[in-house]
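FORM 7B: Structural annotation worksheet

SECTION A. Query
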Amino acid sequence: MTPRRTTADDASAAAPDAGAGALEQGGSELYWRLRQDVLDGRFPRGAPLLETALATAYGTSRTPVREALNLLEHDGLLERAARGYRVRSGTPEDVVEIYEARIALESEAAASAALRRTDLDLARLRHQHDLIRDSGDERLVRAANFRFHEALWQAGHNDTVTQLLVKLTARLRIYDSGPPSPFGGAEELHAEHEDILRAIADHDAEAARAAARGHLQRSLEQRIRSMVEGDGTPP
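SECTION B. Predicted structure
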């Protein structure tokens, strides 16, 4: 199955690829191209991803396609099907489980950032924080929100935690295909980030952990409300 563009392209522009700044993890160029196309929703759900068709579509041989598909299965983005692979589907329960794992990991990343952050880390966080505050464009706010969290992971200087968070947020992209959960307003989002940023700047690990946990818990509660009110079972 060759990739197709869908209405999800607009959403993907607002929610950048989780791990866009983590190419150092390895993987071929084809792996990263396929990964982005999966995250952008360019393959119909349930349609088989066949080595031969993908090799033709991406102008390569079957061997690198096979290697890329195996890596994407390992990432939790694909699953084996009767014919090749297919994009994984998730239930609302899967979405909640991933959020809960993310809360546990990212709150610890925030605490670690408070202890290990450099001046450059702090400057990156403040830059995204200011973009959220100053932009009136919701798409740009969502993009800056993601980049803030990515900068937070990196400021913790724990590659294992960062890689796990990259994988979790990528799986959320394909599992949680309902409408974006509301932020409750950019002002509320900015205030919560302000608490996280202040704690990290002050080297206060406990405050950073608590602020990050509260912020992500609110996001989970909003997602649950959205799924229940809209009967938002991911297709």
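SECTION C. Observations
Residues 4-16, 18-26 have pLDDT under 50 and may be disordered. The beta strands are 78-80, 85-87.

SECTION D. Sign-off
Analyst initials: ____
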